[in-house]
Amino acid sequence: MPERLTEMLMDTWTPLIILWITVLPSIYMAPMNQSQVLPSGSSTGLKRLSEEQRVLNRSKRGWVWNQMFVLEEFSGPEPILVGRLHTDLDPGSSKIKYILSGDGAGTIFVINDKTGDIHAMKRLDREEKAEYTLTAQAVDRDTNQPLEPPSEFIIKVQDINDNAPEFVDGPYHATVPEMSVVGTFVTKVTATDADDPVYGNSAKLVYSILEGQPYFSIEPHTAIIKTALPNMDREAKEEYFVVIQAKDMGGHMGGLSGTTTVTITLTDVNDNPPKFAQSLYHFSVMEDVALGEPIGRVKANDLDIGENAKSSYDIIEGDGMDIFEITTDAQTQDGIIRVRKPLDFETKKSYTLKVEAANIHIDPRFISGGPFKDTATVKIVVEDADEPPVFSSPTYLLEVHENAALNSVLGQVTAHDPDVSSSPIRFSIDRHTDLERQFNINAEDGKITLATPLDRETSMWHNITIVATETRNHSQVSRVPVAIKVLDVNDNAPEFASEHEAFLCENGKPGQVIQIVSAIDKDDPKNGHYFLYSLLPEMVNNPNFTIKKNEGITYSLLIKHSSF
User: Residue 322: which of 348, 358, 286 has the closest Cα?
Assistant: First the structure.
């Protein structure tokens, strides 16, 4: 309290001291001027003048004055006396003329050319111009000849507290993480004061909070804003509006003040776990759903935002872990359940899964508040779909001899309706695969019969498609390929590979090969062909020629006797 009382007294007396300094030169110098106006030849007056000159001389020159000041913003009915110029060469005979030049001479500052009194003619503002540099000149009034060298001096504008602090960069915006400890730095504000920072306390600023307590505090001299409450929760309140005041005169009474606003936003940290909107989810799906198709969505909400709210989903328990999968929708953060393997209503009608949602980015500072995950149960009911017939085999292979009788049964296909309703099945042949209509099928039992004769040598394979159709829903259709292999029978005589015409010289020797002959057969016996060659009956008794078997399936025609 004594220290504050001293500062208050200083603030009160400072303007009065400034005024006293300003008026002092004229008050002090007035008696000297009066003493200088003396009758010519007065030895007493000259002696007194000589003594005063020794007191007031500041150099070898004859100029005499004190430093000059003028209070800013001073206004009154008359121009304010700033000070008086005087030279010790002036005997008071009015022969000296004072001239003023420099900053504001003749406009702002006017000098009485006889007395040297300088008056300020205008109201001055230190923040616009703090000092003026002028030049004083004393000349002979009659000849205008200089009596002294010119001398430069300064008139200083004395500051008063006429400017309030300003926050030139305001309003401010700042962020600080939620759940911060007390004393966490938020931001720093800065106010400026146009008053003189050197003279007095006019520019000495003290900062305080007008609005925003008890959440934030400000350091009075550095203007650093810090958190004042622990564990401020963004999810409870995200934005705070703080009003800061800067007051000059060291914050004392009578000081001027300015304010600014600081909007402080709490940024998110991962301090909240994901939480499923419900503990149990029910979904139904048709058994014929395509693989990869979504069958439902679950949602774990997180009060945090951005990266802190992202979660991953997993199936951690259940009887369908290999049947279903769950993925995360990057846009909505939903868990999407999809089918991985085919479903069969007739085999299993329902599944129960346990799914988990866990935060991806965990903040170690809040790990003790975990676990940052949650679980929910998902029940999936498989619904029966009207499925098409199912053949007993994905393909069929039938074999038939080429000489099989018409209407003989070549084989049979079977199919059934997998649905609980078990619709009867009718069979047919896709005639686009049997254009010549060589086969028929019994619509009731699926037996395939021969409709036209077969010839292995013409076509060894026949590929047809059998169609199975539900009688209760003709849109439910299945197809299966049937390959029919025609087996060979010996129904073709051998043929010579080519026509032969042999030539023989008359002197041919016995045993000489005249021609090698071979045969072919369109049939395809399992053990290969075996041909027996002989001469025609009318040639059997010919004594000149004979046939001999070679290696393989060829024979040679030889000369038996040389009787040509």
Answer: 348
